[in-house]
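Lab notebook, design round three. We kept the backbone fixed and only want residue identities now. Task for the bench partner: fill in a sequence for the structure below.
Input structure tokens:
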């Protein structure tokens, strides 16, 4: 799967991923009201608005971007209708040829972790038939419970042609409460980085592994160190845009070949119509505002590579 992602990045000259994290505050009121008028003040109405929101943004940006990253929590908020909107989003993105990175941050032990891996990336057999759950291409994984929680996801990668991104140094302000703790003379996130490189050793496709890492754009100096510790690891970089990361912070996340990282922006893209610089598009043309924001993001990032 990492080879497919790299091919898309190279073809579109776009080392970016758009986070599809719809909320009632981010979606245009006119869009939400349309579905509430049809289906009432119900989770079903919000779910329909979510899918239409995502669909229009993907349609507007598909020629510019290699991947999307739906955050499942936003959909789970609205129960089963929300999860159905999530599933429809994954399916539609794949129909467009986009790589889908499921932002699920799962991590458990034993059969639980295996079930998460199969449900989001793999398949299950019922009698003579094989069924796929959400069937994303890649997924984010929480390593806090150790190898027991990560290995089932790693084991799915090869037979199913999938990939994962393991949390290493995240972009949130309180990440240092645990991740920066000194263990045997080094920050904990460096130990995690070495395990990620180890987990990916038998999952390489050329120079890169299907086992990637998550390292926030808000910590560029740590990104440089982690890039050296994980030479075969693709890095998913959240924190660009709304969280304060910018193109100038990102150069050291990439290898000399210009590859090795993919940068995520969520609110900065999908809610671009709410920002002053894109206000001219208005609510009705929110997808065109998202496209303009993608173009600006690409210019910013590619200018430093």
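Proposed sequence:
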């Amino acid at each position: 799967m990492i080879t497919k992602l790299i091919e898309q990045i190279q073809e579109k000259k776009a080392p970016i991923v758009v986070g599809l994290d719809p909320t009632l505050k981010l979606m245009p009121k006119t869009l939400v009201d349309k579905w509430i008028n049809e289906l009432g003040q119900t989770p079903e109405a919000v779910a329909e608005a979510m899918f239409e929101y995502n669909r229009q943004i993907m349609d507007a940006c598909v020629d510019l971007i290699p991947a999307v990253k739906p955050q499942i929590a936003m959909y789970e908020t609205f129960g089963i209708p929300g999860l159905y909107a999530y599933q429809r989003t994954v399916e539609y993105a794949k129909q467009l040829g986009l790589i889908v990175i499921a932002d699920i941050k799962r991590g458990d032990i034993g059969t639980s972790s295996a079930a998460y891996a199969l449900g989001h990336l793999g398949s299950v057999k019922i009698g003579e038939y094989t069924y796929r759950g959400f069937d994303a291409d890649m997924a984010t994984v929480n390593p806090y419970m150790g190898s027991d929680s990560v290995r089932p996801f790693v084991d799915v990668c090869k037979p199913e042609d999938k990939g994962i991104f393991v949390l290493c140094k995240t972009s949130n302000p309180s990440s240092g409460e645990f991740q920066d703790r000194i263990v045997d003379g080094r920050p904990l996130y460096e130990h995690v980085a070495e395990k990620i490189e180890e987990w990916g050793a038998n999952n390489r496709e050329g120079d890169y592994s299907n086992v990637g890492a998550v390292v926030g754009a808000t910590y560029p100096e740590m990104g440089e160190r982690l890039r050296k510790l994980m030479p075969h690891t693709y890095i998913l970089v959240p924190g660009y845009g709304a969280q304060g990361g910018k193109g100038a912070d990102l150069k050291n996340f990439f290898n000399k070949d210009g590859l090795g990282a993919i940068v995520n922006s969520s609110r900065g893209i999908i809610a671009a119509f709410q920002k002053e610089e894109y206000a001219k598009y208005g609510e009705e043309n929110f997808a065109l505002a998202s496209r303009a924001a993608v173009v600006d993001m690409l210019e910013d990032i590619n200018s430093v590579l």
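Keep this in mind before ordering anything: The domain at 2-302 is CATH 3.20.20.70 (TIM Barrel).
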